[in-house]
Amino acid sequence: MLKFFFAPHTCALASHIALEEAGADYQPVRVDFSKNEQRGADYLKINPKGRVPALASDRGILTETPAILLYIAQTHPKARLAPLEDAFELARLQAFTAYLCSTVHVAHAHRMRGTRWADDPAAIEEMKRKVPQTVSDCFALMEAEMFKGPFVMGETFTIADPYLFTLATWLEGDGVDPARFPKILAHRTRMSERPAVAKVLAAHG
Amino acid sequence: MLKFFFAPHTCALASHIALEEAGADYQPVRVDFSKNEQRGADYLKINPKGRVPALASDRGILTETPAILLYIAQTHPKARLAPLEDAFELARLQAFTAYLCSTVHVAHAHRMRGTRWADDPAAIEEMKRKVPQTVSDCFALMEAEMFKGPFVMGETFTIADPYLFTLATWLEGDGVDPARFPKILAHRTRMSERPAVAKVLAAHG
To answer: Has residue B204 been placed in a domain?
Structure first.
């Protein structure tokens, strides 16, 4: 059985929802960030990066949200979570998840994780100050150019949906009014009403 | 025919090499960053993000290096640039390319592109100061935990190889001595000797 390592308030929420939507057979394992377990020797054996999510299968351990999401889709084809038979559509989907991990999540991370890129407290404060603008710019681009509706890729639910949902739940904390992005806000509301999402949110609560 | 939009000294090098290694039929189009063409109205119609790479096919335009790389591999299966028949191995490959785009490239970007995340010149300087450490930490992790050798994923050349090669060519500029990572340095040397790589480097020169 798959073991899924997660912590609340992290991007692990996206893969966790995808596992539920796929009907996967998996055991969730909570990593306690308040005790710094993600940096403990036991967890570093699982993921030397000291981060979540991580997905342990009988063949080894997978990390990185875009990789885990596509793996879930490929190993649960009946759930139809990605356009696996169409290389161009799959690349469009991958472009969306790559943008979320390399740009949107990174913009957000400058609020709580500034020490990754600077040590001086004044610089860390300055990064925090700019987060509402940078996160807002990302969501404005997604709203205008990338989000098709009603789901990210159009008519069909895919692995991009729980990932966008996860990052959209951080908007208020990042000092951004989600009402500025009506399509993405409506998506967030619809997503939160899905049974799989409600179940996972309760586990993260 | 595919049109591939690139600029020298960017991560577009990775996809450009992959196109050559795949034997793809494509037309390279150079975007002149010195004239800020990537922010011009014509290019923003191609890629509203104002970045390279972008790959135009008859079905539309793709962006984001991990997405373009997998698309090249999937549409040129004879070149065997990814383990397309093995979801777990493909996920391991994707975890590597996701790490490169979300963490390694981002660490590097704090040297030249600090204005993405801060406006205050002192904060931008502080980010630059930390780049040798953050980039070094990324390469140390890849050298110790992720790079199999002789290629990224082991015995077989994949799309991860030109991507790692691209970021490894930035090490000296980032103030990091590549000799600290002997496996990755040897990989960089071997890669630079491949005919496809030499051809693309000449086009970027």
So the answer is: no
**CA atoms of B144 and B183, how far apart (whole Å):** 9
ipTM above 0.95, yes or no: yes
Cα B110 to its chain centre, rounded Å, is 16
A7 SS3 class: coil
- Round to whole Å and give the CA distance between B66 and B25: 20
Give A71's contacts in chain B (Cβ within 8 Å). Answer: 87-88, 90-91, 94
Give backbone dihedrals phi and psi of A60, rounded to 5 degrees, phi first: 140, -170
Question: Any chain B CB within 8 A of the CB of A120?
Answer: yes
Domain extent at residue A93:
87-199
Nearest CA in chain B to A101: B102
- Could you say which of B68, B101, B107 has the minimum Cβ distance to residue A91? B68
Q: Is A86 on the interface with B (CB under 8 A)?
A: no
Q: Are strands B54-57 and B60-63 parallel, antiparallel or unpaired?
A: antiparallel
Residues 6+ apart with CB under 8 A from A133: none
Task: Tell me the pTM.
Answer: 0.98
- The domain tally of chain A equals 2
Say if the Cβ atoms of A88 and B117 lie within 8 Å.
Answer: no
Residue A140, C-beta contacts closer than 8 angstroms, at least 6 positions apart: A180, A181
User: Over the stretch A47-100, which tens digit does the pLDDT of each residue have?
Assistant: 999 999 999 999 999 999 999 999 999 999 999 999 999 999 999 999 999 999
| Interchain pair B98, A60: CB under 8 A | no
- Among A62, A106, A123, beta carbon nearest to B106: A106
Given A31, A51, A80, the domain boundary residue is A80
Residue of B nearest to A108 (CA): B117
Alpha-carbon separation of residue A70 from A15, A22, A99, B151, B173 (angstroms): 10, 11, 15, 23, 34
Q: Is residue A48 in some structural domain?
A: yes
